[in-house]
Prior knowledge:
By secondary structure, this protein is α/β, with parallel strands linked by helices. The protein is 41% helix and 18% strand.
Amino acid sequence: MNNKVLKVLAVADPAVMVYTDKMLDVLKSFKYKVQFDAVPWEKYYPAMMNVFDGKEYYDVIMVAGHLWKRDFVEKNYIVPIEFEEEDILPDIVSEMKYNGKTYLSPSFCDGHMIVYRKSMINKSLDSVITPKEYAEIAESCTIAMKAHQSEIFTDALPFLRMNGQDVYDENHKAVCNCDGVIKGLETYCGMKKHAVHDTDTFGNGEIAETLRNKKVAAAVTWSGQLGTVVNDSCIEPQDLGFATFSTAWNVTWSFAVPASCKNQTEANELLRYLRSPEMDALAGALSGAPVRRQSYINGKEKYPWYECQLKMIENAKPLPDMKSAGDKNGIFYEEIALAFSGKKTPAQAMADAQERINVI
């Protein structure tokens, strides 16, 4: 093996564990040594900005797909990569590109998936349901909500969209101060009374634990968490059902090469290795969210959510590629958390969010 070491900054997620698991040792056949540094989601963005600011060095970083892509390309933070589309899902291929060039290499797809206990809601759901239908289910059972401030905007997003309006318009202006979005936020906040205690502290780990151990009847989580939910310790996995929202959103966590990378040829070799069919099948099994069509075909009998998840990927509506996306969306996280805690009404939170975002 070559003595060169490639450094990767990654978000701490079940999908990333496949690359770092010493028992699996999936990188043993790669020609260079690879150092993966996995950082928790709530600390990841500042860590990544340190790379762009020259305070830290990495050859490869993880990027939250279209959420950050435009900003990072236009600020020259990341560079184009070598890319072969092969059987990567077309919607994911599209997300990897900007202005005709490819900047991202897909790792796993995170989108809204509903996991429920059939025995606790006493029925099987259609594979696609509306947020209104989910809220009605919540009225008669106990749910969990991923309502930590670092998660709450995207957790609430299907409900903000449930009345036919969205939070941004085609010009990337916030338009959330409207009846449809406000009523959607009221519905989301109203589900708190049916949720487990401390649901406002819940992130991915807490949601997975409550579902695995049959503590709640239903919860919304990311597709990239399903492999962790349905693992060997899951109680009665056959009792689990899967659905998605008619207003779902998704994002493809991807690898990118920062402009400061001194090993761009080797970094591209690594990205090609990480998105190979063999690695996609392994990562998909652990996270539950592969990016290649063949992985879904081969795994559909073993992973019962794959069929529903494909519908989610094909039908989900992304947030717009826009400048200052991180700053703008960060305001939604803050204001929705204030509404969920009762410190503001949903109407006041959305009015304040629109005013704050549109001066950026």
